[in-house]
Amino acid sequence: MTKTTSKKIKGNKDDAMHFIDFYDTDFFGIVDNENKKTTSKTVSLIVPIDDDTTQKNKSNLAEHKVPQIEDFTDTEAVINSILQLRNSVLIHKTNGIYNDSVKKEIQQIQLICNGGSSHNVFRSMTRESRDIVFEKYMVPLMVMPGDTHEKEITIDDHSTFCKKLDVTMMSTAYLDTYFPEGKGKNPDRKKQIEKMREFIYRQYFQEF
Description:
Blueprint: E1 42-48, E2 61-67, H1 75-93, H2 98-112, H3 118-138, H4 148-156, H5 158-167, H6 172-178, H7 189-207
């Protein structure tokens, strides 16, 4: 008896004229919202979970991702980023004092302006705002108002500007210019100084 073997034919791959490539769901117009990856860039900012505690350990910290500002001409995207920053991050970082709120908000906006042209635009906007406020409200406080070197150092950086404003003395004559109703009535100068600083911070933020 002769043993016969059968040869399995796998087919001729060279004749496959209609090989179909893999197509993802986008090709067929199917949107998978659960698995669809976002293309927008975000900046991770750390916020405390419990506002009432003084604990600063990692268990009390959470990460919130705020959309990065890349182009200030995209108004809707800029507003969305700033609103998320205010509602989810700044609410945990401010203490209700207006001056501190301005400092922190501008610092946090700077953190999300780190893509595209936004960094340079942000720096230019804030510097111009400090320049306007410095000339209008702080030059009268300077001992040497014509010192351009001091001015350049002050307006070049947000933190330096805030420190300068916080420590610069305000004379009685200066305060009486903005609070004329207090002349000769023994006003609370400390309170006037606080109100004047807050007013300058408001002008700074408004210009920005």
